[in-house]
Specification:
The protein is an alpha/beta fold. The chain contains twelve helices and six strands. The N and C termini lie far apart (76 Å). The structure holds uracil (URA).
């Protein structure tokens, strides 16, 4: 069997086998000349070099350095379509951390999370439990906008989550309120539906920070009938926070 034929079969992923009579058969086989090989085959692709493995930097101990790292991040393809990164906003001494999914179009334009219609509803939800927006810290699972607001891909989340973990380590919030399925499922590493995750007190990370789940404000804009359940969640979170700051245990699930 000629070397070109072997290369052709190899390129198509076809196993080569040689019969016991191979020498005689091979002698009888017509040789393939380079002119008979289609250009696509003669230009067999050389395998692309494997991409360098992604190694996240060790966590930063400093907010400005972390902000610069996020702004310079090219760890996934979202850096090619973003206008700017959306680091997060608020009081870096806040007791409450609110976590959403990812920037939308308006957030990508302004560089701040929750500034569109969903943001206005989030502000109202927070105010309803006595929390003006500027008293909390607001961040997202992703720091860059997914094109057309599609769901984050698992690889995008895994590349971006170290930034959020670093923010949580710096902030040391007393409580986290995750809004929406994407934030809840990624923080809890589960694919359980939101309905099963809300109404319970969870914890996040090694510090076992109390974590409460509620609906995303964009969902509530589409489904106002669930605002009542969101209100229950907010009261539940407020009670958990009160218990933690009073030095006691957070409330149970009842
Ligand atoms: N939705 C989110 O989850 N986060 C934002 O910042 C804006 C909309």
């Amino acid at each position: 069997m000629g070397p070109l034929r072997n290369a052709y079969l190899d390129a198509l992923g076809i196993d080569r086998w040689v019969s016991r009579n191979a020498p005689a058969e091979v002698a009888a086989m017509p040789e393939i000349s380079p002119a008979q090989v289609s250009p696509a085959v003669s230009r067999l692709p050389t395998p692309a070099p494997a991409p360098a493995p992604f190694v996240p930097l060790p966590p930063s101990g400093d907010w400005s350095e972390l902000r610069e790292r996020v702004a310079a991040c090219t760890a996934c393809d979202l850096c090619k379509t973003r206008t700017q990164t959306v680091f997060g906003v608020g009081n870096t001494r806040a007791e409450w951390l609110i976590i959403g999914e990812a920037p939308g179009a308006e957030e990508d334009r302004q560089g701040e999370p929750f500034v569109g219609r969903a943001g206005q509803l989030l502000n109202a939800m927070l105010l309803a439990i006595g929390l003006p927006r500027e008293t909390v810290f607001i961040a997202n699972i992703l720091k860059c906008r997914p094109p057309a607001n599609r769901d984050p891909k698992p690889e995008e989340v895994s590349r971006c989550l170290p930034f959020l973990s670093n923010q949580i380590a710096l902030l040391k919030p007393k409580i986290i309120l995750a809004v929406g399925r994407i934030a809840a499922q990624n923080l809890l590493a589960t694919d359980a539906p939101l309905a099963r995750l809300r109404g319970k007190l969870h914890t996040f990370g090694e510090a076992a920070t109390p974590l409460v789940i509620t609906y995303h404000p964009a969902y509530l804009l589409r489904t106002p009938s669930d605002k009542r359940k969101a209100w229950e969640d907010l009261k539940f979170a407020r009670a958990a926070h009160a218990r933690v700051t009073a030095g006691g245990n957070a409330p149970g699930n009842g």
